[in-house]
Amino acid sequence: MAVEGTLDLFKLPEILQLISQQRKTGILTVQGQQDIVAISFLNGRIVAADALNQTLEEGLSQVLLKEGIIGAPQLARAAAEHQAAGGRLIDLLVERRYIERVQLLEALRLQTFRLLEQLLRWSQGDFKFYSGDEVSYEEGFVPIAVEELLIHAVQNAAAEPARPVPAAPPASSGRPAPVRASSLPAEIAAEPAPARAAAASPRPVAKPAPVAFTPALPPVDAEVAGPFRKMRIEPRLVVSRATVWMGRFLAVLLAVLVVTALLRASNLLMLPFPWQQREREGLARDQRAALYLKIDHAAKTWFLLKGSFPDRLQELVAAGLLSPDDLEDFEGHPFLYAASEESYTVDPLERGRPVPGAGATEAITGNFLLDPEFLNVPSEPSVQPLVLLD
Amino acid sequence: MCRNGAERWLPALTLAFLMTPAADAATVSSSQVTGVEMTPPVRQTLKQLEEQWLQWIIQNDRQQAEKAVGDLLETAGRLGVKRLPDLSAAAVARAVEAAKQRNFSRARWALEAAERFDPGRPETAFAESLVARLQGNYPAMLAARLRAYPRLFTHPLERYLWLQDLLIWSLALLLVTGGLFLAAQMLAKGAALCRDLADLFSRRLPRPVALGAAALALLWPIVLPNGGVWLPLYWSILLWGYASASERSVLIALWLLLGVSPLMFDAQRRHVAVALSPPARAMQSLQEHQLYGSLFSDLGVLRSILPESVAVKHLLADVHSSLDQGELARSLYRQVVEAEPENTSALLDLGAYSFNKGDFSGAIQSFQKAAAADPASAAAYYNLSQTYSESYMFDEQKAAFRKAQDIDPGRVAAWLAQQQRVVTVAGGMARIPEIRRELLASWGGREVRSGRLELFRRGLTLLVSLSLVLVALALHLARRPFGYTERPAELSPEGAFDRWGRVLLPGLAAAELGEGGKAFLSLLVPTALLMLPRLGRLGISIPWRYDPGISLSWLVALLGLALYLGVRLRRELRGEA
Prior knowledge:
The complex is a heterodimer.
Chain A: E1 2-6, H1 12-21, E2 26-31, E3 36-42, E4 45-51, H2 56-66, H3 72-85, H4 89-95, H5 101-120, E5 126-131, H6 146-159, H7 186-190, H8 193-196, E6 220-221, E7 232-233, H9 241-264, H10 266-270, H11 277-306, H12 313-318, E8 335-339, E9 343-350, E10 353-354, E11 360-363
Antiparallel strand pairs in A: 1-5, 2-3, 2-5, 3-4, 6-7, 8-9, 9-10, 9-11
Helix pairs in contact in A: 2-5
Chain B: H1 3-18, H2 31-34, H3 40-58, H4 62-78, H5 85-100, H6 104-117, H7 122-135, H8 138-151, H9 156-202, H10 207-219, H11 227-240, H12 245-276, H13 278-287, H14 295-305, H15 310-322, H16 326-339, H17 344-357, H18 360-373, H19 378-390, H20 394-407, H21 409-417, H22 427-430, H23 432-444, H24 452-477, H25 479-482, H26 496-504, H27 508-513, H28 516-531, H29 551-573
Helix pairs in contact in B: 1-14, 3-4, 4-6, 5-6, 5-7, 6-7, 7-8, 9-10, 9-11, 9-12, 9-28, 11-24, 12-23, 12-24, 12-28, 13-14, 15-16, 16-17, 17-18, 17-19, 18-19, 19-20, 20-21, 26-29, 28-29
């Protein structure tokens, strides 16, 4: 199935956005006055672009030289080797280690970007979109989102509004666009060669503005929905600064929430749902009881040595019997401590007031080492006393 | 007694006091005061312990102090105990106090006393380390520290609590890492999510308004009750559409963990509460032959909680027996045999009591019942043979002895070698696990745990986590109409922030690449290191009697973190990260 029209009716950005939004896979050909450009889409993203007047090798060689990835002598030597060996020049460049494959892919992406930016300056021509199930593209190529392309184009246009149009690149005399016929949709593959090659002489086109060279991450296996599962693609999209910062803000907010819960309300972290209030209270009660036991051990150890409870809990910390953390409960409530001769009370404070029902009172009663009365108890009479009623 | 504890156990305590076994001697103490009844000799021995402790306290002379320690241990031995943990803790505190006053010789002998009172306590080794540090003897400090840490796991109660703490800490670690994993996902993919939401709203609203609407759509759960949990759950569903297969696996695992962990916490906290209850501590001490100040009061609490428990009566009978309070023990053994006529160990104990009292006919009756209840009991036949011998019934004696030898010749030979007149079995002590189960059941009874509504409430969390999976799947299927971008967006333009962000924010690079497992593990390691000082502060406080502090945890955490980030930095500089 093909959709076609002229650039008078639909501007190229609109067509690109339409394909992107509908996540179409297929090839868009745009025929201008001097050239034909074929753009391959995979799920609405650009994965290849070729011009009739410039071979892939030519365009790529220019980029490689311009970016200083390869020197002219090396390129010439590679071209000579290519003449002798055959095959694709770009494969030979990698195989003979003139460049790394990552560099090749980056250069290819940059070259595609430039070609597309040239294309966006076209105001006249015909377009035709051939929808299909798959397209061919260089493995590892980082797909270009239409939004990314358009934003760059707009930024470049804004940056250089009155740039003179330089001379067009030399017309190609070599092989036409390297889109493999076998991978093309049936309609385009069946078209006669003259129709595809109906290119006029090179027209003067604007030299593309320099595009930010973004080093790509190593390609990864990313599983996506649709027929292209396990396709090697690079997960990249350009998004606006506002959404980027919004995403960062949300991430920081979540991290702060988690850390705060851990430090200030660990029970809420472990039992977070509203209906778990009872469990949270139970856990807090048990945690407090365990802490009181520790405090009790410390206080009674102190009593064994001094004969009285300490005046302040800090004295137990200073003696190494408690840690500073033990001076507040698990919910961060500091303890109010008050000691008398034979007992002491510990109450967790919330906003300066004791938490109701959360305190504990301990005494020396029942402890034979501390309680002098424990062993001096009067004996129980074995016989009930005789009670004279009158 | 703790007020909380009193509230918990008071009704049962009152009941128990009313059901205290009748004491046969006029001088036996009231269990209302001492927890269990005590005869004058036992009280005298305890009094002696108290006085000997005071002797130790006032000693300034090493030899006199050592003698006082020996006396204390000898007195404790008369009660059948070998360890005095309270006194050990106090000796440790005394040692630390002396060391701080630069009296290191006193500190040393106080530490030696602590070790003798309760051998193998970690607190003693930690205090030894502190004393060595104050003395400037750093090799000794290190050696003591190294000796202290393995000791943390040698005592059953503390080991159990430590493992429970570790469990809580691990669950909390996984949950925190899960939260940070979501934050990393949001950092890597939040921009795409925001953009898609803004695009969705842009269909009907101007762009700036659409952005605001997107922010509202993302943040609204924060206003819900416990919004802190709903927000990450909601985001995890939204991010599902942008996640790779491995990231989705991690998300599902986190949802299920969130669903299951409350149930685990609840079960764990009941067990820990029981383990820390006074009765459980008392039983633990009996098993370890420890005597602490409120042991008898805590045993009284046990009886008050489970007044009808035959196992408790059996245990208390054994306690009385070990305190050489035969009459009190016999009364309880009789109650046990009444409830369990075929309880061999109680029958043996009853028989032994009669034997020791010279009531050989009574002893023969008890031992015969024991042998009938358990024909494989060598002890029953051995005791019978001994009793027949005392009663001049030599034919029966020979037959019983032969029977005992047939059943277990090795043990019989050992009893003979030890010249044991009658053999008893600590059947009550062996029932401690059974009593623990009863305690757990009685503890659980305090909370409403039945009813459909309660069942629903408890299962609700699991239901929520399963619902999350379904909602995420549904949303995934509906992603196209909602305009999802299926792949994550670029985090930011490349630059210094990007590079250092990847080094300093573990999991970010993996999140960008959609490697869920790697992202989670990258976050797990530093989170675990940072949470290390929280170990012991998230669950139950272990009632150590001397607190070693958390300086080592901080040291390990900081060193580990520095190492981890150093490795990441090195890899980044090499271009591997």
